[in-house]
Amino acid sequence: MARHPDPAEHDPPDDELELLADVRAMLRESHPGGLLWMVSTVLLTVDPRAVDPFSPAGGEDFPDLDPGELAASFLAVDRVETTALLTVLAELVDDDMTT
């Protein structure tokens, strides 16, 4: 049986702790809507189709992160919460976002 790591074995930065705490709270809810909303919002921040060409920055302020890199960052942290995020990502990401 797979063993989940002891949270004390890995101390992520404070901003990661907040994300993991939010995901943990959403996993306790009886409906997945909160988690789906969170992941879809995060995906919007890495979807190049979401760049507003009429913004003053003209897309220059768009993060240099794609959905694959986002998934890799979640894979780097072996936690129940990141597994949940990856599961939702796998369902929401389409081929258009990864090409």
Give me a quick take on this structure:
This protein is mostly helical. Helix content is 56%, strand content 0%.
Describe the protein's topology:
Elements: H1 14-28, H2 33-46, H3 67-75, H4 80-92, H5 95-98
Helix pairs in contact: 1-4, 2-4, 3-4
Give a structural overview.
The protein has 5 helices and no strands. With 99 residues, it is mainly alpha-helical.
Spans of at least 5 consecutive residues whose pLDDT stays below 50 are: none
Biggest pleated-sheet summary: none
- Indicate the radius of gyration in whole angstroms: 15 Å
**Helicity, as a percent range:** 55-70%
Q: Which sequence of SSEs, written as H and E, runs from N to C?
A: HHHHH
Strands, count: 0
The tally of helices reads 5
N-to-C span? 36 Å
Structural class: mainly alpha
Strand-residue proportion: under 5%
Mean pLDDT: 78
Shape: globular
